[in-house]
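Lab meeting prep.
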Amino acid sequence: MKEDENTCLIQSCPHNWLFQRLDGVIRHGGAGTTVTGLYAGKPTAVVPFFWDQDLWGHAIAEKSISFDLLLVRNIEESIEMLLRESGRQKAARFQTMIYQDNGIIKIINVFCENLRISEM
């Protein structure tokens, strides 16, 4: 693949930095990129190719915060959907819900409650 006016090739880049600068995210759908994309508040589509990616793609599509799994035959339609105002609004609303949920504290509490210190 060659770089041109529509393509920027990079070797490595933190997803949390990159996703904030995009209009939409088409990605493989692993747990890490799923969470990072949702935190960035960007419309998203998933192209799964391994293990849990299909699960994450369906999970976010069911919550109407993403578009169903991207297939080669509808890549143009998926890109158009990512750029629509309704998609941006859905993603922004979900981002707000994430930030208001305080999920990190909940996860830490569940972890600590289930930590079996006596068995260590």
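Slide two material, second protein:
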Amino acid sequence: MVSANIFVLLVIQLSVQVIYAANECQFTSDCGKLEKCINIQDTACVCKFGECVFDGNPFFKNNDCSSYTDCACSRTPDSCFCRDGTCENVAWECRTERDCNKLNKCKSKDCRCSTYNTCEPYDCYTETDCYTGKFFCSTLTDQGYSCKCSKNMCEIVQSNPAPPAPPTPPTPPPPNPVKIVAAPNPECETITGRRCVFPFTYKGKTYKSCTLDETSNGKPWCAYETQRDGNAVPNKWEDCDSSVCQVAKACLTESGPDAGNSCKFPFRFNGQTYNSCARFTWSGQNYGKYWCSTMTDRNGNHVNGQGNYGFCGFCENSACGCGCNQSRIQGAAAAQQDTNIRFGSGSQKAPA
């Protein structure tokens, strides 16, 4: 009889633990309040079916699949996912936004499917929502940045530090999209003589001069035709004539998984915000170099698990924000900095 009672108590205790774990969170933002999700590194803590789990590896990406249909488990799509090029026979919350409509937590609000295959609420409908919701971009106004509501996500844009005025009611769009060539800057032309249009917007970022962002040949470029909303018309861009155009400085990665791409400042990693390249503190051949993120999420966090980082050539480019003297960090200060690192899995190392 005593053994039976002990067995019943153990079953009840385990059941309570399972219920508690399944109710740790509703959305990923809830996980940031848990002790196990604070100060983790090289991984993300996301909300999956009510439980905060670790996910993502910035140093590993496989090539086994590009879609769940490439996987052996494709006949059970609800529990078959292709994540970071690896087939997983494990259920996640969503593959598309339509999957989120099936979850109770999204019944009373609009949800999207995040890059971690979790359903997350829309950040915003207007720019004002980014400030009232106290998103990460709203904390950077004293550093010359502001918020932009793009595809219902709050993004960081460089602008005046003051919050934007309340938006005016939108005007109905024309029956057919109208391509407009805005008043060009007569002093800046492309290498074929087309006049650059400033400002222009590309992938949610607004440019007022030629840019090196996402350049494929290392040369600055501009849009010479824009749509009514200011977005660059696809394929209507060319390299700038550097003899007559002003070029915005950019910090480009010179080596690493995403070499040749531009750094995304500011970016957040391991609970700290960086406005310049950060010191690489893992052991190995890259120890002591400076690195930056080349892709961030809507809150400015470095996107892990996809190799979106590289090492800065900061000695030749002041736009990287860290002078050569910073590479001379020595002695106890550097050693103490390294001992404060806490890894997400405890076994992951820097890429060779």
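Talking points for slide two:
The first helix runs from residue 2 to 21.
Confidence is low (pLDDT under 50) at residues 6-21, 177-185, 323-352.
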